Amino acid sequence: MLPNSNSSLSAEVSEFLLNCFVRSPRWQLWLPLPLSFLFLLAMGANATLLITIWLEVSLHEPMYYLLSLLSLLDMVLCLTVIPKVLAIFWFDLRSISFFACFLQMFIMNNFLPMESCTFLAMAYDRYVAICKPLHYPSIITDRFVAKAIAFILIRNTFLTAPIPILSARLHYCGKNIIENCICANLSVSKLSCDKVALNKIYQLIVAWTLLGSDLVLIMLSYTFILRAVLRLKAKGAAGKALSTCGSHFILILFFSTILLVFVFTHMAKKKVSPDIPILLNILHHVIPAALNPIVYGVRTQEIKQGIWKLLRRGG
């Protein structure tokens, strides 16, 4: 509901309205189709990967458990953001309840760093496999994966949970139109009647601490991997390792770069259309999700064989 001018100072907000690309009506015309395609691709590819790893006993290994976690995180992020955005485009369903808005905020702020941390665990897996192949079976075990998943869940939930909590505790006394397609922390908190400096500072510190530290450690892992690969003397071994790890690294770089671009465009919002950071934020929830299972899964020989086995079984 839109508050009127007489009640705007006293009415408590029970729902928000997402003002999604109202300044760019052309985007509302052409964006839904590619976004729908990417969403279906992401959900289909990740579901196929999860089912293949679950049903194929030969894939019940640490590396594929991490890959399953990545697919699961991608699917949750997609389902949290994209269906609501498409509902706005297709049916003009702009309203979102107070609870649903902050639940979406919690999942976005929690699961994106979880994905970054999963990339780090997978980079470490590749580092051990290439740099210390003889020790791989004793280091990368099911127990290692269980500890890595527990660390990913605890670290990110503990550090990111205060973001939506701080935002939800603010007093929303009238304005309820969010100038965004999603319930981003800063877009929502600026509607409150309270000071939001703490929200901004905390989110900035946590984002740079989690994502920044992950990216530095991933870069170090791939630096050691590259150095080890260049020393390989077996025919074709270096090329194969570079091909696999190179595609992984490009995908991780894309994941990190789009976040940096989003941050800088948001900081330079006076020089950039305010819709650009919104678009980048939406795409960041669907493009990596569509690419991850293709680069990490379909390009892996064992995954391809597993998919073919399932198709033959189904046929």
TrEMBL record:
The membrane topology of this protein is: Multi-pass membrane protein
The entry's localization annotation reads: Membrane
For whether the record's keyword set contains Nucleus, the answer is no
Query: InterPro entries this protein is in?
Result: GPCR_Rhodpsn (IPR000276), GPCR_Rhodpsn_7TM (IPR017452), Olfact_rcpt (IPR000725), OR51/52/56-like (IPR050402)
- Residue ranges annotated as transmembrane are 35-57, 64-90, 96-123, 144-166, 205-229, 241-264, 276-298
Alphabetized, the UniProt keywords read:
G-protein coupled receptor, Membrane, Olfaction, Receptor, Sensory transduction, Transducer, Transmembrane, Transmembrane helix
Can you tell which superkingdom this protein's organism belongs to? Eukaryota
Q: Does the keyword Transmembrane apply?
A: yes
Specify where it is mainly localized.
membrane
Locate the G-protein coupled receptors family 1 profile domain: which residues?
A: 45-296
What does the record give as the function of this protein? Putative odorant or sperm cell receptor.
In Swiss-Prot or TrEMBL terms, this protein is called: G-protein coupled receptors family 1 profile domain-containing protein
